[in-house]
TrEMBL record:
This is Cytochrome P450. Pfam families: p450. Its cofactor is heme. It comes from the Bacteria. Keywords: Heme, Iron, Metal-binding, Monooxygenase, Oxidoreductase. Heme binds at residue 406. PROSITE patterns: CYTOCHROME_P450. Belongs to the cytochrome P450 family. It comes from Sphingobium ummariense RL-3.
């Protein structure tokens, strides 16, 4: 049996870090704070001057918390961190407000069905390959930092789905740089709040980065919003148009321009950032695991040959799908899901007071040896094994779980499958032996210093 590859992750210390060390470590990355017991404990507890936190890893608790969205709403800390970028959108809203927003935006996601979006995804993947070919020709081969280019293809796909236009490289680069800085500044501001320290301008800087991102698509939204509300002009039948046409289920009122911008911002953010993270890590894992890459290539060529991908071919790509699923298990784009305790509650031997932060961590649940064999190893075939099917249902939650599961989960996995399949069909992907990525966790899991791969044209 071939030895499984274990990709990089922060090696946890044996004991919990001290108060000061925890602050310094978490300033840069949440997953670096974890210690050995974090990966097996049923329920953990952390106290800071400004926040009392609990991490629930026991599957019964995870199902209870994620299944009761009203009893355990999104925590105010997450809402505050993301507010500059997405405001009070369907992702951060709670209670009746969330239910009403969800009812308004649900019809928009009919535009993300595979039959409608597959041609856009294929075209964006073809454009990505052309860019890599051009970079290889210019550089004469050698490693390429794929991280910003994965941001581009993911942002381009959601741009086409949202607005029916492609995203230019300049806009993509603006988004990649601005969101990286937004994550850095939002992380710092959050840590300072948790330790009851002044923000030192980090929130102001995160607002500035959010404005830089908004400027990329706000003119499109403004122009079409004004045309639609002035004379009923319908430029395209896409997500943006559906948001214009949405009506509040109680009042019948449409979204205001500001509210449309909030919904567009979360759809764009969730639609590109999580997918970019997924595709970056998937290509890295294939670059390290040549046998799996070759098996995947054989599957793609058997089902699609050199022809454009079809929905029927994509549905049959079992190994491609499992590579995507295993990547999501190892590197869930959003590794921690904070919820708020709104009434005192007992969980295991702990009494949680109102206002406490209750965290469900896909990063921990999906790397717990009680749930998965060889939990830190890359093994896409685990999803085909009968003994793992219960854990696939219970201990696999890269897009959340319960009523607030990510509405775009299928869309993200489909685009990742198409991009990964296209890349493997066109390139031999190699991970340089002397250049390994370091995953860090802020809002999402990204490589700290980029991720370089050699893409040799086949």
């Amino acid at each position: 049996m071939t030895e499984l590859f274990t990709p990089p992750y922060p090696q946890p210390p044996r004991n919990k870090r001290g108060f000061i060390t925890r602050f310094i470590t978490a300033w840069d990355s949440w997953i670096h704070v974890l210690f050995e017991k974090s990966y097996t404990m049923k329920m953990g507890e952390i106290k800071t001057p400004g926040q009392h936190m609990y991490i629930a890893n026991e599957l019964e608790l995870v199902e209870r918390i994620m299944g009761q969205a009203k009893e355990f709403p999104k925590h105010e800390e997450m809402v505050t961190s993301l507010a500059p970028l997405i405001g009070n959108s369907v992702f951060t809203a709670n209670g009746d407000d969330w239910e009403e927003q969800r009812a308004m935006v649900n019809p928009a996601f009919q535009h993300t069905a595979l039959a409608k979006t597959l041609p856009m995804m294929v075209e964006a993947a073809d454009d990505l390959i052309a860019r890599f070919d051009a970079i290889n020709a210019e550089k004469g081969g050698g490693p390429i930092d794929i991280d910003p280019l994965m941001t581009h293809v993911a942002a381009d796909i959601i741009f086409r789905t949202l607005f029916s236009v492609s995203l230019d490289p300049a806009g993509s680069l603006t988004i990649h740089k601005a969101f990286s800085r937004f994550q850095r500044q939002a992380q710092s501001a959050s840590m300072l709040r948790m330790y009851k320290l002044p923000s030192f301008g980090f929130m102001a800087r995160s607002h500035k980065r959010a404005r830089e991102i908004h400027k990329v698509f706000e003119p499109i939204v403004r122009d079409r919003y004004d045309q639609f509300h002035r004379d009923g002009t319908i430029a395209h039948h896409d997500i943006l148009q559906s948001l214009f046409e949405a009506k509040h289920p109680v009042t019948g009122e449409p979204f205001t321009f500001h509210q449309v911008m909030e919904q567009v911002s979360i759809i764009f953010l969730a639609g590109h950032e999580t997918s970019a993270s997924l595709m970056t890590w998937a290509l890295y894992l294939l670059g390290e695991c040549q046998q799996i890459q070759e098996r995947l290539r054989e599957e793609v060529e058997r089902l699609a040959g050199d022809a454009p991908f079809t929905g029927a071919a994509v549905r049959e790509m079992t190994l491609v799908r499992n590579v995507v699923r295993e990547t999501l298990r190892l590197y869930p784009p959003v590794p921690f899901l904070p919820r708020e305790v709104i009434c005192p509650v007992q969980m295991r031997d702990k009494h949680l007071e109102k206002g406490a932060m209750l965290v469900v961590a896909p990063w921990l649940v999906q790397r717990n040896r009680d749930n998965w064999a060889c939990p830190h190893a890359f093994d896409p075939d685990r999803f085909e094994k009968p003994e793992n099917q219960e854990m696939v249902k219970r201990a696999y939650l890269p897009f959340g779980k319960g009523p607030r599961i990510c509405i775009g989960a299928g869309f993200a996995q489909q685009e990742a499958m198409i991009v990964v399949a296209a890349m493997v069909r066109h390139f031999h992907i190699i991970s340089p032996a002397d250049d390994k990525p370091e995953p860090i966790s802020r809002l999402t899991i990204r490589p700290k210093h980029g991720l370089r791969l050699v893409l040799a044209k086949r």
